[in-house]
Batch of 2 targets.
Target 1
Amino acid sequence: MRVLVFFDLPVLTREDRHNYSRFRKMLMKNGFIMLQESVYCRMALNQNVASAFTNLVKINKPPKGLVQILTVTEKQFAKMEYVTGEYKSDVISDDRRIVIL
């Protein structure tokens, strides 16, 4: 499953910028990767894990702005069409992931 977080937060005042930065850093700290500006994605093993991430976002939501969460299956996520541009992933999927202890 994938948990997608979409947000549109105000950045007019210093406090708004601080809340935006804090929310964005919380997403990254918890394993969300940026798909595009203000759209972050996190893989979840099952519905229980996805619910936990959803609750985490709800607890850390900023006081102002719009935050939306969408949970989709891996099959639905794979059907995403790229009209322009291409998919970039921060995930290393080759031999560089191997750790020898």
Target 2
Amino acid sequence: MKRQFLKPVLKTIFSLIAITIICGFLVRTLTNSETLSDYAAKNPELAYGEPIEDNHDDTISNKETFADEETSSTASDNTDNINNSGDNNAENSSAVPSNTSDTVEPDNTNTISPDRIIYQEGFYYEPLSDEIKVRITGISYPVSESEAANISYDDLCYLSVLHYDFSGNVQTGELICNKGIVEDLAEIFYELYLNEYQIEKIRLVDEYLGDDEASMEDNNTSCFNYRTVPNSNSMSKHALGCAIDINPLYNPYIVTNRSEGTTNISPIGSEAYIDRSAAFEHKIDTDDLCYRLFTEHGFEWGGNWKNSKDYQHFQKVVE
């Protein structure tokens, strides 16, 4: 009975021993006859090392250290490049001819006069600068002051304003006027600007070579021009800088000669706007904001004249 029981047990034990021997042989063969003990002796950091989780933090730390070293190196390189760039600029600067300042005229176009008065942002006036005097002399102003009766450079001011053009865009305009009305004009044009009143152009008549007819045909708003009244020997109020014409193409100057039965209309091309009872844009009449502002400031309107009608024209007597 005992033999029958021991026989299968011994058989199982012998089988396990045989399997163990075979596995040992295979391990030696596959690992070049190296046992686990031998492998552990050669690779103690792997055989007896810390768990993988602990090595993860070390790996991140190493990456950060490397990144810091790389950033530091890059910054150092960039600093060197900047310093080198500065050296190159210095070299290029030294290459500029030393006589450049002798051949280039200084740019005084942005020079601000100490006498400039800023009424509002974009609105200022000041005495005529030397640059402006050169610009207008021989055109809107006589060649010499001795030729200008009752008006000198000192009697005039340069005025810069903002205005809305016919497309609704804000433009910068410039006028030359008598200093006696410059504050009035600054206030009037500022109010027109706040109300988005449209004025097509505001340029010095000098851009039209002093030709008043050409300026009006281009619907240019202008003030000072040393000239006579058309078809007359009398000096215009424009010659004193005390008159201004607003949107002249839409507000013509009409002179009727009853004895001859003729009517002169200026400028050419404004015939469509003779009928002041008609409704059209940019018409100046007693309901117009432009009319109200100028008359409130003591200006006379040419549209109220009896013998002629100058709907574009406003003038003021300066004491």
